[in-house]
Model the fold of this input.
Amino acid sequence: MKKASLIVMLVLGLLQCAPAQHTAAEHRLLADTTRIENMLRTITKTEKSRNYRNTDVLNAVADYLYGALTEYCDTVCFQSYQVNGVEYKNVIGSIGIDKAERIVIGAHYDVAGDQEGADDNASGIAGLLELSRLLSNEKLQHRIDFVAYSLEEPPYFRTESMGSYVHAKMLYDNQINIKGMICLEMIGYYSDAPGSQDYPLGLMRLFYGNKGDYITVIQKSGNGSFGRQTTRLMKQQGFIKTKSLRAPASLVGVDFSDHLNYWKYGYPAVMISNTAFYRNKNYHEITDKMETLDLRRMALVIDEVYETVKGIR
Done:
């Protein structure tokens, strides 16, 4: 696609998905920041980094996630698979198992290289676990599958070894009815400093501003009604500044997480993200530690996703 055509499509998407103008600074948190802090500590403060080389650490984290999901889910299981003779595991917890149609909420628990990976992506995993607690007592219209993926990070990104690829393929092969997928990818880092937010295209500052103080609902063009409904409901809550992007998947960053594998199989999917490296310069660095995260704003995002999932029809 030529750059001029990409810019035109992007501007049209921005105009259709203008940022919400309201906030709820006095919103009483439903997500528990103490629980979130404890989960982040357990996931990030391991003796070795939870990367693909350290399978003992990955397995220990997977066991922790299994136990945490067991507390609130109707069923929990490992989805094990082999890569180069080594076993890796997705962890899947489900509620509302009597419902015919599913919503997948997913996040990856591995890291790139030797680092703690607090924002990327312990924050998404903590959100996943807290959502399992919040949603467990709700009467929902859909089955919810909470999926913690292994091997999202390099060297396996964009390969069939990604845990999300394995999971999406399983759904497709078994013709399981999926309403849509919500990917939680880096939801913990925020900044109110001018100039703290970058973009793939400079013109985006005109629509989004230059402060990294918001959460974004990201999806590709032609993502269908699930994406539109998710965006509308997230903005409707107004617990935190919530903005949206519907753009071609070729725009750098739009497909940079596990949701891309659901797109491959024709499932609608959105990514809830703080825009990753466009904001957080600790991305894939040893400085990505839980001490850099804003737990209150992270909890506000979790609350918005919670209310959104309840409202999806």
Q: What stands out?
A: Residues 73 and 137 are 10 Å apart (CA to CA). The radius of gyration is 18 Å.
